[in-house]
Amino acid sequence: MTGIPASAAGGSSGAHGARGPAAPADGTRSEASGSAPGPGSGGKPARGGKIAAAAVNQASVWNVANLLTMLRLLLVPGFVALMLANGGYDPAWRSLAWAAFAIAMITDLFDGHLARTYNLVTDFGKIADPIADKAIMGAALICLSALGDLPWWVTAVILGRELGITLLRFLVIRYGVIPASRGGKLKTLTQGVAVGMYVLALTGWLATLRFWVMAVAVVLTVATGLDYVRQAIVLRRQGIAERAAALEEKEA
């Protein structure tokens, strides 16, 4: 998920947002690899070049990072079914639901890292990654509140913050991208741990501990949300000032 998400951040909850620099075009990649038309080809691509290019394009979408993102999306309905099975209070089913939630959180950490490290960025990934982040977290929070395990105001605060900051990022993207902060990343981690503890049927001191972990998550959610709003205001003012200065210089 997203300190903000990176996704939305242009990177989670981003958000949970862009995964890194875009991969070079196929032509650029061929030049970098040193491939060149064979002798007597008159500069024309080698036979089968179009088929090879199509295969590269297909692989750029069906890469391991995107497959992890799709797995996270598929886990959402499975998580909900496990969470609500047998009335929603069976410890065994809740443990299975926790396993699905944990897998989703782990894949969220790895898909972005793989995409940035191995240049596996695609338009699909840029769109699907933040959606997957918010879908699994939103499903968990709504299920917990519907079962009475978590107050609805906590769900409203967390989801409202995530959706609001995502919208804010899109509104100011013409002026620049708000980078993910350390506080946002810590918020995402704390949210994941807190929600995971609530998914499990904990009792005793562990149930008390999860309350305090969730309290920290809510505080970080609000604090980082306000910080992103501040950054958005500053970024917008700077963008407007730079455009005004460029316009004056052009007119002069």
SSE sequence, one letter per element: EEHHHHHHHH
Largest sheet: none
Gyration radius, rounded: 22 Å
The rounded distance between the terminal residues' Cα atoms is 48 Å
Global morphology: globular
What report would you give on this structure?
The longest helix is centred in the last third of the chain and has 47 residues, at 205-251. Helix content is 71%, strand content 2%. The chain is built from eight helices and two strands. α6 (152-172) packs parallel to α8. The chain has 252 residues and is mainly α. Mean pLDDT is 77; it is low at 1-59.
Summarize this, please?
The protein has 252 residues and is mostly helical. The chain has helices at residues 26-33, 49-61, 64-84, 91-117, 123-146, 152-172, 182-199, 205-251; strands at 4-6, 14-15.
List keywords for this structure.
252 residues, mainly alpha, 71% helix, 8 helices, globular
Blueprint of the fold:
Elements: E1 4-6, E2 14-15, H1 26-33, H2 49-61, H3 64-84, H4 91-117, H5 123-146, H6 152-172, H7 182-199, H8 205-251
